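can u do me a favor
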């Protein structure tokens, strides 16, 4: 395949989320080259705090790119046949902005910093108007994605509640966003929004500017999860679709491979049949929800992401599978695709490709607390299958599969031990047995952390690598420390 337009979708794009796991520029360029070779023609970049803001410089974080890097990347993508559409959230998912005192007056809630108050549209328009201009200056794309998803605090503050009671939540949402979208239109850009909130609250949808593009995202659930899509006027607005490469319940210890393959199988034909004009593959580095570390009642010290996932580099098979699903008219068969991928990409025999599919699909969903042991056995089986396969090509990519399986096995074995500590019959007399089971898991941590750092070198920054490993093994280390300390305090051998 090449970067020509898909026969079904003029736009085939990969969404890249840089909220955490900021990718060094060489890694971004490698990714751009790869997806261009697979047939994508668009990248949708959610730069967030990695963007080099000028007038709002306090927003940019320590991993922010320079303007020259962003402009150079956009130019490089254009040479590859990729258009780059920027995403700038301006309603929900703005913790990284509202954490700063400069923007505190825009908060919908004093303690939950995820959302702008839509009744403060004038100062919000001033802030985001300036931000949009900076982003547009570096992105010649005709589109500007302005977010709009998961604004779950709608109607929380008193001013918003009164408007919602009088006019409805849809009017509260739309009255804010039509002003934002109109500002984007006056800049000569086509505004794009995620469609979920208007599907939930469609009553005032016809007030949105006609040129607005809505992106209907679906990651493997019923089509009407957010609301009946037929309630939005498709003769008035353009619609794109979006599936997912990394999304809930993916986390540090599991990628739900089968769920994603099934998502491609079911949703791409739906988007084609429905006449969507573009289709995206989203790749979320975190859930987008945060906890907060507060220095005082007003001062936020740090945002604590709820749920992290394995870096994007470990999921190339899904990038390729989505491209196949888009370019072929028959629904994607995930197992068949993995077998073909194993043969073509890794040089495995047909039977090896089948074993690869078996290993990826083992233990798909997070186990219940009373089944940790059984889930750990499945993960162990997946590790054995992958260890027995010998790729002839692209061995580094294959090693990501094995490491992900090993991390899952390690995590589930820990959860199985941890579960014993929460039984009603657990007393300090059982501490030695718990510590004895935790000790070998503790000994595995340095090797697993080193493998993670080695395989992902150059894909995320070393400082984030350390954060990832601290997050991944933190709960195990904490339980081991508590049990060992309690054992010493009570005199129980540990």
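np, heres the sequence
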């Amino acid at each position: 395949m090449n970067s020509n337009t898909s026969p079904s979708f003029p736009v085939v794009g990969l969404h890249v989320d840089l909220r955490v796991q900021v990718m060094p520029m060489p890694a971004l360029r490698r990714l751009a080259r790869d997806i261009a070779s697979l047939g994508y023609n668009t990248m949708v970049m959610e730069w967030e705090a990695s963007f080099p803001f000028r007038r709002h410089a306090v927003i940019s974080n320590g991993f922010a790119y320079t303007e020259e890097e962003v402009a150079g990347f956009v130019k490089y993508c254009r040479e590859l046949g990729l258009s780059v559409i920027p995403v700038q959230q301006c309603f929900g998912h703005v913790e990284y902005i509202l954490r700063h005192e400069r923007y505190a007056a825009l908060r919908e809630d004093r303690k939950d910093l995820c959302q702008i108050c839509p009744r403060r549209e004038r100062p919000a328009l001033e802030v985001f108007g300036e931000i949009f201009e900076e982003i547009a200056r570096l992105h010649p794309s005709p589109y500007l994605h302005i977010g709009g998803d998961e604004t779950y605090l709608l109607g929380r503050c008193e001013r918003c509640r009164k408007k919602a009671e009088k006019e409805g939540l849809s009017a509260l949402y739309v009255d804010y966003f039509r002003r934002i979208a109109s500002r984007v239109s006056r800049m000569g850009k086509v505004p794009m929004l995620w469609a979920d909130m208007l599907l939930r609250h469609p009553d005032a949808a016809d007030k949105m500017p006609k040129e607005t593009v809505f992106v209907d995202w679906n990651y493997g659930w019923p089509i009407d999860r957010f609301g009946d899509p037929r309630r939005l006027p498709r003769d008035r607005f353009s619609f794109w679709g979006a599936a997912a490469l990394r999304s809930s319940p993916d986390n540090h210890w599991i990628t739900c491979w089968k769920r994603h393959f099934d998502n491609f199988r079911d949703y791409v034909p739906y988007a084609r049949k429905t006449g969507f004009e573009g289709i995206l593959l989203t790749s979320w580095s975190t859930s987008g929800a945060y906890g907060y570390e507060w220095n005082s009642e007003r001062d936020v010290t740090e945002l604590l992401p709820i749920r992290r996932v394995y870096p994007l580099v470990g999921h190339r098979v899904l990038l390729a599978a989505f491209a196949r699903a888009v370019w072929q008219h028959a629904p994607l068969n995930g197992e068949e695709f993995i077998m073909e991928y194993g043969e073509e990409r890794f040089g495995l025999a047909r039977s090896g490709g089948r074993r690869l599919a078996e290993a990826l699909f083992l233990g798909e969903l997070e186990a219940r607390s009373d089944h940790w042991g059984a889930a750990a056995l499945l993960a162990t089986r997946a590790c054995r299958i992958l260890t027995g396969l010998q790729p002839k090509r692209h061995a580094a990519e294959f090693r990501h599969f094995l490491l992900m399986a090993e991390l899952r096995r390690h995590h589930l074995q820990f959860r199985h031990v941890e579960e014993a500590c929460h039984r009603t019959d657990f007393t300090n007399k059982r501490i030695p047995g718990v510590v004895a089971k935790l000790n070998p898991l503790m000994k595995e941590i340095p090797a697993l952390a080193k493998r993670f750092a080695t395989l992902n070198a150059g894909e995320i920054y070393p400082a984030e690598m350390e954060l990832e490993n601290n997050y991944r093994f933190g709960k195990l280390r904490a339980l081991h420390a508590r049990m060992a300390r309690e054992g010493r305090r009570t005199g129980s051998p540990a």
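The CA atoms of residues 264 and 322 lie 6 Å apart. hope that helps!!
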